[in-house]
Amino acid sequence: MLVSTKGRYALRILLELGRYDNQTHVPLPMIAAKQGISEKYLESIVSLLVKSGMVSGVRGKGGGYSLARPLEEYSVGEVLRLTEGSLAPVSCLEEEENLCPRAGDCATLPIWEGLDAMINEYLDSIKLSQLAAMQGENPCPGGCIR
């Protein structure tokens, strides 16, 4: 599993919006400037976040984007599954039902199922509010969230 820029940037966008109360609408150009993300690429990610209900948007003067719910209610896993599709380590686990014809005889399947469960449990256990708190403490030289 390799997390794309879309997934990493979605986390950064949500963390940026989390700096403001949910009544403040942050304009797209401000988010782009603060996060160093092109507005065009940012638009496509924000659009996905709005469609999913994670972010709300207001058009016009005084418009912008805000979180749809408190930062502590978002998990890293939820965001990455939205942006990446699947976090499965192997293709046979990408769908709800494993349709691989060899699944019944696959000696390695339990390894991949266990890894898939660990990945999802781990990423679901991390709330964006925890990342925001860590960001303030700067636990990683050069910053953790890129």
Portion in strands: 5-15%
Question: Helix segment count?
Answer: 6
Judged by helices, strands and strand pairing, the structural class is: mainly alpha
- Report how far apart the termini are: 17 Å
Report low-confidence residues grouped into runs of 5 or more. Answer: 138-146
Major pleated sheet: 2 strands, antiparallel
Average pLDDT rating: 89
* Number of DSSP-assigned strands: 2
Helix amount: 40-55%
Please give the radius of gyration in angstroms: 17 Å
H and E order: HHHEEHHH
Spatial strand order of the main sheet:
1-2
Tell me, briefly, the overall form.
Answer: elongated
In short:
This protein has 146 residues and is mostly helical.
Highlighted features:
146 residues; mainly alpha; 6 helices; elongated
Polypeptide structure, described:
The chain has 146 residues and is mostly helical. The protein has 6 helices and 2 strands. Strand 1 (55-58) and strand 2 form a beta hairpin. Helix 1 crosses helix 3.
